Amino acid sequence: MLLLAVVYAALAVMTAVAGVLGLLASGSDLGTLPDMGLEEFSDPWVLLFLNASLIVAIPSVWMVWVVAHGMPRGWSSSVLGRLRRRLLLPYTLLALATLGVGIGLAVLLTFTVGDEEMTGPVSSYGWLLVVVLLTTPLQSAAEEYVFRGYLSQAIAGWIRSPRAGALVAALLTAALFAAAHGPQDVLTFLDRFAFGLAASAVVWLTGGLEAAIVLHAVNNVLVFVLAGTLGDGVATAEVPAGIGLLFAAVSLASMAAYVTLVARSRHRLLPETWTAAVDLRMPGPVALPAR
Amino acid sequence: MGTPVGAAAGVGARAVGAAGLGAGPGSVGTCSLDAASAAGGPVGTAPGTPPHDQPTTFLRAMRSRDWAWWRPVLGCSCSPWSTRPSP
């Protein structure tokens, strides 16, 4: 874990420096750079910067897996030792049918019951769409590789009982996942904590990160696209004030629906949930029964 | 390396060689697989192979690897998991 933190921090700093150098090389005046505050998610530059610094977590996790654990990087993805791409589209449809509806409803509540107003498409809307569609799914995958991939396995591996290990890993990584999003109010923390639990649940149900990556990517892409389309009234950083409980209830219900649909789809999609076993015995003389 | 056993079949070959080949209580700094290797018996799997001698879940994939942080500390190159005797 320490190696992962060091490698990731080094790559993130390198990404940030490369980003600033790139801006300087392109002739940008540092004084005109956008505010890099994490609240400015509708600014394509800020989002690109943030996403790039998070995406480098993927090679960081893979590097630690290979160097420190002597395992191919694919074991961070699923029980097959690779990312199962066949599952991505079906889970995306399930996520759109549940989380998509939930996010749409929450945004509707924000503008009807809440006191937010639509401010229209943000400036640089086109660039924002490009950045969101190209980098946000990778940013979501990176967070899943760290929290539901590496950390969950590292924590569960210390606990003898598989069920207890899965439970402790889910609780701890959900808390870390929520805390990693920075200062926030209690309701926002609990919403992210629940998101972490839902992601851990689908990982446990499906034997890999695909369903969790899809859950995360669909959530983030929809939120950022809606925020870019409708304006800053769409909450990207925290549960909106005023309709907090209602917003959180819709969010929880949509996450629970996704987990339920993923669980029910197992008989149809047949996601592998066990690794293949390898015969570790050395080849040698085989005792055949006497005839 | 032996033949991969499909998880779907539910067949998991256990690592053998630990029972009867394990290092004694007094063998500080050596492991059962080291001793087994010296005796021409079973050895640990090479890095990079998936040594899940039994089908295991995603969350236990790291645990079932024959890797442990204390191996280099103790100067020991074997795995506590793959040397576990079969019940």
From TrEMBL, chain A:
Pfam families with a match to the protein in the record: Rce1-like (PF02517)
EC annotation from Swiss-Prot or TrEMBL: 3.4.-.-
Stretches assigned to the CAAX prenyl protease 2/Lysostaphin resistance protein A-like domain: 127-222
Transmembrane stretches, start-end: 46-68, 88-113, 125-142, 163-180, 186-205, 212-231, 243-263
UniProt entry tagged with the keyword Membrane: yes
Single GO molecular function: hydrolase activity
Source domain of life: Bacteria
Keywords in alphabetical order: Hydrolase, Membrane, Transmembrane, Transmembrane helix
Tagged with keyword Nucleotidyltransferase: no
Enzyme class: hydrolase
Entry protein name: CPBP family intramembrane glutamic endopeptidase
Organism expressing this protein natively: Blastococcus brunescens
The organism's taxonomic lineage, starting at the top: Bacteria, Bacillati, Actinomycetota, Actinomycetes, Geodermatophilales
From TrEMBL, chain B:
Protein origin, superkingdom: Bacteria
Protein name as it appears in the record: Secreted protein
